Amino acid sequence: MKNICYESTSKCLLECPYCISSDNGTLIQDNYQEIINFIGKLRPERIVIGGGEPLLDPLLKEKIQLIINKYQENNEKPYISLSTSGACKN
Ligand code: SF4
Fold it and tell me: Does some domain include residue 88?
């Protein structure tokens, strides 16, 4: 598998009129460990973490580290990129 787009959060501070993120609904339960286990099995060449706005996800660092750990189990390094507007409070 080449690429996976992982929507880590549905939160966003902006309201772009063309946004399709809201089509996916609001993330109610974040079962990220299950998702990252699945990503670890597929081990795509590239993982794009988006949203919503991924920088608003308080678990973002933990999720990235979990992905790195999954790849390291196979002596590999993941290629991770963020799809972000950069719009966040922090
Ligand atoms: S920044 Fe991205 S997620 Fe946020 S409203 Fe705009 S298109 Fe949607």
Answer: no
User: pTM value?
Assistant: 0.90
Domain range spanning residue 60? 3-15+29-82
Q: Mean pLDDT throughout 22-44? A: 88
Q: How far is the CA of 48 from the centre of ligand 1 (A)?
A: 15
Question: How many separate domains does the chain show?
Answer: 1
Residues 6+ apart with CB under 8 A from 70: 36, 37, 39, 40, 43, 78
Cα–ligand 1 centroid distance for 81 (angstroms): 16
Residue 89 inside a domain? The answer is no
Task: Report, as an integer, the average pLDDT of 70-88.
Answer: 96
Query: Ligand 1: does its nearest atom lie under 6 Å from the Cβ of 55?
Result: no
